[in-house]
Automatic annotation (TrEMBL):
Keywords for this protein: Methyltransferase, S-adenosyl-L-methionine, Transferase
Classification via SUPFAM superfamilies: S-adenosyl-L-methionine-dependent methyltransferases (SSF53335)
GO MF assignments: O-methyltransferase activity; S-adenosylmethionine-dependent methyltransferase activity
Species assigned in the record: Parabacteroides chinchillae
Domain of life: Bacteria
Keyword S-adenosyl-L-methionine: yes
Biological processes annotated in GO: methylation
UniProt protein name: Predicted O-methyltransferase YrrM
Keyword flag Transferase: yes
């Protein structure tokens, strides 16, 4: 048994719906590794249990796995705005969202986050960024004024398979984007931050 397997057998189960979604993604989608998965999903739920956010913004829905995990940990009158640019994912997302007991906590937006975010008249307690790595810095600048003081921003994939330790090729715009974002966060004095070496790196950013 590996450490990862040991962890998964000693934390809460993901449940039947998420387990089915996970299998479906691994069989039918091109990049199932992008899905948050059991451990990160339980961590996202726990963040919501602890923070009790009323309004959550998720940039990058993909399958809706992380969305449903966060919704599970949120109270009944709370709401997640989740944004997905790939309209081909909508049917997959709705297949599982429509049968979730937490569907009323989720509002799915299909389209470009850079166009949708300015239209959201909300103040967010929690933001989860897991979309186009080339645009992390732009997402951050756009959402920062919409996050309440004391709110939490989570950015996924900030270790990017260890590529952050190497000089990126000029054509590798995603690695360049992650490196630029990490440097931006490092220098931002409006926040406190820590990178968790979880999966592919999860940065926790607390707005002062």
């Amino acid at each position: 048994m590996t450490i990862d397997e040991y962890i998964l057998t000693h934390i809460d189960e993901e449940g039947a719906l998420l387990s089915t979604l996970n299998r479906d993604a691994n069989v039918n989608l091109l990049r199932p590794r992008m899905l948050s998965g059991h451990l990160q999903g339980r961590i996202l739920k726990m963040f919501c249990r602890i923070l009790r956010p009323r309004r959550v913004l998720e940039i990058g829905t993909y399958t809706g796995y992380a969305t449903l995990c966060m919704a599970e940990g949120m109270e009944e009158d709370s709401l997640i705005h989740t944004l997905e640019i790939n309209d081909e994912m909508e049917d997959f997302i709705q297949k599982y969202l429509s049968v979730s007991p937490h569907k009323d906590k989720v509002r799915l937006h299909i389209g470009d986050a850079m166009e949708i975010i300015p239209q959201l008249d909300e103040t967010f307690d929690l933001v989860f960024i897991d979309a186009d790595k080339r645009l992390y810095s732009e997402y951050y600048d756009m959402i920062f004024p919409k996050v309440r003081p004391g709110g939490l921003i989570l950015a996924d994939n900030t270790l990017w398979d260890g590529k952050v330790l190497e000089k990126p090729h000029t054509s590798d715009k995603q690695t360049i984007g992650i490196l630029a974002f990490n440097e931006k966060i490092k220098k931002d004095e409006r926040i406190e931050k820590v990178i968790l070496p979880l999966r592919d790196g999860l940065t926790m950013i607390w707005k002062k």
